[in-house]
């Protein structure tokens, strides 16, 4: 028997809130990645790790907030906690691989394609692993073509966001890029949900113990939510992240900065002012001009 699926039980509340969380995670991740390009050593790794965790947490929170509006009319749905949090680990880990590739290799074609593919596959893996953690008296069936489309959307969105992280400077352009990424991630999620069909088995044994959807709301909002809040504070107190000032601003053209020290301007030597014209020379010039 086929189940009746409703992905918008609470109307627009869950998709809009999920979209905003995806945008928040993307914005923080992009700004942290941009900041990492202006540092070296452990500081760069720290900023990249913070960016990867921000994006992964934002996407994971977006997914499960959206899933709060998902119901199967004929059967209650619960969640397996280990698989649910394993999807978070997979998402953050694979997003981190893509961000570290671009953070250390730069915006080369190979780094963007490789990093974007890994990051996009991580987003898709997080989505479908989270779906596998749902328990109910039945089984899911996916349309292969629609699932493939959702994966393509995730890969393209991830590649574009990585390019934006290393190529776009300034707060407002990065904010626009994060909105585009939020739209793409939400589009990937609901495309994947459109591929879903639920087949119920009335005679099957009841599903094992799990977490009800509403009981997951608290850890979702407190755990990743607090982390995103702290990441936002870190970003806001760093003026370079907010203003997007390019590295080397104020550098003298044609001169490389000194190693290990700030860039200082070099005064330009001016030509000495020629001496005053002598009286005889002035009289000679006036006679010639007559």
Entry keywords:
mainly alpha, two-stranded antiparallel sheet, 9 helices, about 5% strand, elongated
Could you please describe the fold and organization of this structure?
There is one protein chain. The protein has 290 residues and is mainly alpha-helical. It is 63% helix and 6% strand. The protein contains 9 helices and 6 strands; from the N terminus they run E-H-H-E-E-H-H-E-E-H-H-E-H-H-H. It has helices at residues 13-36, 42-67, 81-105, 109-132, 144-167, 171-194, 217-236, 239-243, 279-289; strands at residues 5-6, 71-72, 78-79, 134-135, 138-142, 196-200. The strands form 3 sheets. Strands 1-2 form a two-stranded antiparallel ribbon. It has a two-stranded antiparallel sheet with strand order 3-4. Helix 3 packs antiparallel against helix 4, helix 4 packs across helix 5 (144-167) and helix 4 packs across helix 6. The chain is elongated. The model is unreliable at 241-269 (pLDDT under 50). Residues 10-199 form the MHYT domain. This is MHYT domain-containing protein. It holds the Pfam family MHYT. Residues 248-263 have a biased composition (Low complexity). The chain crosses the membrane at residues 12-33, 45-71, 83-104, 111-129, 149-168, 175-196, 216-237.
């Amino acid at each position: 028997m086929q189940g009746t699926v409703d992905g918008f039980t609470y109307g627009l509340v869950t998709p809009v809130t999920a979209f905003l969380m995806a945008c928040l995670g993307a914005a923080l991740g992009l700004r942290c990645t941009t900041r990492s390009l202006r540092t070296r050593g452990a500081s760069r790794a720290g900023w990249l790790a913070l960016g990867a965790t921000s994006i992964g947490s934002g996407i994971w929170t977006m997914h499960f907030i959206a899933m709060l509006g998902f119901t199967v009319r004929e059967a209650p749905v619960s969640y397996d906690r280990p698989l649910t949090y394993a999807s978070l680990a997979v998402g953050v880990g694979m997003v981190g691989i893509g961000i570290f590739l671009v953070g250390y290799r730069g915006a080369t074609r190979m780094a963007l394609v490789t990093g974007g593919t890994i990051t996009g596959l991580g987003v898709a893996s997080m989505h479908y692993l989270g779906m596998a953690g749902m328990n109910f008296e039945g089984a899911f069936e996916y349309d292969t073509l629609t699932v493939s489309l959702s994966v393509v959307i995730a890969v393209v969105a991830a590649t574009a966001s990585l390019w934006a992280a290393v190529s776009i400077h300034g707060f407002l352009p990065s904010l626009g890029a994060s909105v585009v990424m939020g739209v793409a991630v939400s589009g990937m999620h609901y495309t994947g949900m459109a591929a879903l069909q639920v087949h119920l088995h009335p005679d099957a044994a009841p599903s094992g113990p799990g977490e009800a959807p509403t009981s997951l709301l608290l850890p979702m909002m407190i755990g990743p939510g607090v982390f995103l809040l702290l990441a936002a504070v870190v970003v806001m107190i760093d003026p370079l992240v907010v203003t997007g000032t390019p590295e080397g601003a104020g550098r003298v053209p044609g001169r490389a900065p000194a190693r290990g020290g700030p860039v200082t301007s070099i005064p330009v030597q001016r030509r000495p002012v020629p001496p005053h014209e002598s009286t005889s020379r002035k009289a000679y010039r006036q006679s010639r001009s007559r």
